[in-house]
TrEMBL record:
The keyword Coiled coil does not apply. One of its GO terms (molecular function) is acyltransferase activity. This is Acyltransferase. Pfam families: Acyl_transf_3 (PF01757). The keyword Transmembrane applies.
Amino acid sequence: MQRHYGLDWLRIGAFAILILYHVGMVFVPWDFHAKLPGAWWVAVPMMASNPWRLALLFLVSGYASRALMIRNKKPWRFARQRSLRLLVPLAFGVAVIVPVQPWVELGEKFGYPHGFLYFYWHDYWRFGMLGPLLLPTWNHLWFVGYLWVYTLVLALAAGLLPATVTATAQRGFAWVMRGPALLALPIAWMVLVNFVLFPGARETHALVDDWVAHASYFPAFLFGYALACAPATLAAFVRQWKPAAALALAAYALVAGIEIRWPGNTMPAPWGNIFSIARAVEGWSAVTALIGYADSHWNRDQRWRPMLTEAVFPFYIVHQSIIVLAADSLRPLALPGWAEFALLVAATVAGCWAFYLTGRAIGPLRPLIGLRRHASRRTHVDPRPALV
């Protein structure tokens, strides 16, 4: 398989949006680990990416997993390689990067009286509840944990299912997902998940009880895995990206209008149902438009692409802890909202770059932040698929 540079650019862009999204979480009324005074309307622009960014990331991860499966030849080798690349930074993140988040949250919301070092040694490793929080925790790193579980399920299926079964499934996918079904079936599935299978359910990111998330993200992961060997489906994305983009914009306009009219999940029936359906339509339509546009316009390399692709995982590992610490530091200053937002973005970007550049330069730290143990000698060419 050749590397798909367009999906690399989508992945880079999606994680950049994720950083802005998590900065926005500090200001919206939704629950988050650290809060600053904000306004309800901040949720409106955030809903432009909320329905699709995670589905897109799981889809791109599934696409990359197909390339890695082909490279490793054996499912067990694929599982071993992915486990090392995912579990090591996950463990490092839980042990070193994440703990400041529950410490700030407990102090801000529940009056936790102790400093960070006391919290870390006496409370963080309690493997139980402290107030409303279960400690230790993985917080935003749930994505890495879920991706590892999906990887193991995929490797197990690849090892146990006969080749004829997997080949038939691949041909069926390529045949079905080449026309109108490319838009209709995933949207119908998301509506089914939200209204029939798990009505009113919310994601918990706790793995064992998060069936609504698994029903949304595992199919996206498998879709990406199948898409990697379905050129006809990829061509269908290119054909349909313009109508899909129009549909996504129309659905977002409806979502935004309902949120403006009834902010904070206060919409009466039947507007709550219309809101959820519009989010499902926006979500998959945006994914379709973005993949089609990326394949037709962005599938080319640029000088900064290898470094940015490599930096994405370290940025993801550290960004939320930087946001939470920075927000906690800004609270006593009582600055205007626009200044707080600008400072949070600047601090987060600067901190992420410092974390990445320092970690990549120190050999023993590289695996801890999700990088290969040894840097590639060919810095201008990166033939390996994206890992997260």
